[in-house]
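User: Quick sanity check before I run a bigger batch. Here is a single chain. Can you write out its predicted 3D structure?
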Amino acid sequence: MRQLKESGTSIVFITHKLNEVKAVADAITVIRLGKVVGSAEPTASTEELASLMVGRDVELTVQKNPPRLGDEEFVVQDLTLFAANGTRLLNDVSFSIRAGEVLCVAGVQGNGQTELAEAIVGLQHKLSGSVQLNGTELVGRSARHVLDAGVGFVPEDRKVEGLVAEFTVSENLMLDRSGKGPFAGPWGIDFAALDEFSRRMIAEFDIRTRSPQSPVGRLSGGNQQKVVLARELARDLKLLVASQPTRGVDVGSIEFIHERIIAVRDSGVPVLIISTELDEVSALADRIAVMYHGAIIDIVPADTPREKLGLLMAGVKS
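Assistant: Done. Predicted structure follows.
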């Protein structure tokens, strides 16, 4: 981009990543709800830019207390995943998460993080090893069984794996639970119960929609992610698995999503976060597992310097 600029090219750069804006911009224009709401110089602080974007002060630092750790409730042991051609996509992955703890998996995209999440929730089948939640083995179980066991799953691509764009907000909030209470009535779906639940989730998760009957595909990315999060956190959770939980959402939604993740952790639930954003990893984690070429190269404390994390992500272990 700098080379293009030096050659005389004008660039319009659209992003919600404030560090990128400050690094490359000569002038900054802020748009909110389809309108220009202000402008700023690249010297403006990230807090100033975030406030313009959201329309209020935004807490960019995750506020959390030290974890109140319980027993090891989620244990992965020697998990190996094979591709159709026999290639190992996961290589003897082992880790555990205690009740009330957030373990963040960091790594460059494409080093097995997606496959790890899918293996845990029953979407991969050429597996060996063990995945146990409260002593119950999940390997070999269907995705339906895993979800019914109390696993909440926020997939990395909400549009492909988390939502049905043509369905309403209400329908997406009950996507994988339409066959049982509180939504299943004696003659089919209990629409009164669904409407009450949907309105409560919309209020609790601040989902900006005209109506529970609006197609979810018309919502902004941040509000779509809130629909996914509301659906998964409404379960009787025993484990939360969230992959790229704030990908493609604005800073206001990031603040909200981080707060909800920490609230789940503080309720005593083990939490597994998979993220390529080091700022997010450092902010949420109680421990950090770094993946490289399908294996966990190391598990380190949350306050590990970014330089060391970067080296681990490149496969360099001191």
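The chain is about 30% helix and 25% strand.

User: Great, the batch can go ahead then.
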